[in-house]
Amino acid sequence: MANYRTTIETTQSPQAAFEYLSDFGNTRHWDPSVARAHRLGDDPLGHGSAFLVVTRFWGREVELEYRITEFEPGRRVVMTAETPRLRSVDEITFEPPSAGGGTRVTYDAALTLNGPYRLADPLLQRAFNRLGDAAAAGLARELNP
């Protein structure tokens, strides 16, 4: 399993940051490993909302269908994608910083390979760190224009 965690301070309110990041179709704007992303369906954003995210990983494009599995408006959202090869869980929390206005956004991603693919776990963390660092930099730029 590979984990990546980052915290970003933004001047945006918790609600504004939550609304933007809960729409996982927006990942294409801040994560350079995402080739394409969009929301599936027209229902109001919330528990069960789905997103198709096509990411570039180890030289291949991988389609992941993420679903919102936990949804606490303005506070926390969890997105989960599962394929026969992997399970990805992204948890994003939103809280006011200790001083001043704005929001502290904590992004925690976990990627687990399934079955025989777990043999690649030692290489996965290093690659996941590089992808996570690039995504965190893009997210910081997007949240603090």
Key terms:
145 residues; alpha+beta; Alpha-D-Glucose-1,6-Bisphosphate, Chain A, domain 4; seven-stranded antiparallel beta sheet; 7 strands; 45% strand; globular
How does this structure look, described?
With 145 residues, the chain is an alpha+beta fold. It has a single domain, classed as Alpha-D-Glucose-1,6-Bisphosphate, Chain A, domain 4. The protein has helices at 14-22, 27-30, 121-143, and strands at 2-10, 34-40, 50-57, 60-72, 76-82, 86-95, 103-113. It has a 7-stranded antiparallel β-sheet. A hairpin with a 2-residue loop joins strand 3 (50-57) and strand 4. The longest helix is centred in the C-terminal third of the chain and has 23 residues, at 121-143. It is globular. 23% of the residues are buried. The mean pLDDT is 91.
| General form | globular
CATH topology: Alpha-D-Glucose-1,6-Bisphosphate, Chain A, domain 4
The CATH superfamily name is START domain
- How many discrete domains? 1
- Distance N terminus to C terminus? 33 Å
Q: Number of helical segments?
A: 3
Helices and strands: which structural class?
alpha+beta
Largest beta sheet, briefly? 7 strands, antiparallel
Strand sequence of the main sheet, in spatial order?
A: 1-7-6-5-4-3-2
Number of strands: 7
What gyration radius follows from the Cα positions, in whole Å? 15 Å
Give me a quick take on this structure.
With 145 residues, the chain is an alpha+beta fold. 25% of the residues lie in helices and 45% in strands.
